[in-house]
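Form P-L/3: holo structure prediction, ligand zinc ion.
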Amino acid sequence: MSSVASASVDAGPRPIEPIVLQIGEKKFYTTRQTIAESSVLSSLVNLRDPDPEKPFFVDADPALFEHILRYLRTGIFPLFHDVERGHDMPLYHALQHQAEFYQIERLANWILARAYLDAVSTKTSPRSVTLHGEQQLAHLDEMVRAAGRTFKILKIDESKARVFQCPNRNWRHDGLRSVCFNSRCLPTHRGSVPLTVEMQVFKIDLVILEVRIHQELVMPISEQPALPPPYQNTQ
Ligand SMILES: [Zn+2]
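OUTPUT (holo model):
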């Protein structure tokens, strides 16, 4: 019932040829050009004319094939890294197997050489944070993770002190008179409300973890020669 729209291109570069692959229990829509780097897939789709009703079948893991196809589409090497847990070695291992299975040499060699280890580095920067009251401590994540960064706690020192308290009982303002003032909690004239109370003070030493990805180590090799910068040699 479905009709294949065959764009009639008269000349020029080879038209894009859509291909449907069935990898295990899942269908993938791609093109002959995209899968060219895999000699196994190229040979498979050369066996007969493509037919959307009859996908080319490979009995393999579709979840892993998503990574394979993403690589074939972009040429970008995969990184499976989490700031807290580091690299996902089992997944690299599984993908290396699949890259060998599909005969994608560049990808297989990249994983085999563990080149991903160089592509990611974690920078740690020490930091001290002072929090006022149990509420702030309970929201430590929110108080520290402001820039979406991950941290590890090294040490917490606890003491009691008289500390500024927000008259509107916004615990986020406790110990931070200027934040409170800027939020217009503080009355312009002094009320009778006592502004300092005794509360727990937590001095926390932690390290902020920042992951850096070295893009140049995962990007495809450019076949274009490097162009000179545009404003070079003006005089
Ligand atoms: Zn306030």
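COMMENT: Residues 18-114 form a domain with the Potassium Channel Kv1.1; Chain A fold (CATH 3.30.710.10).
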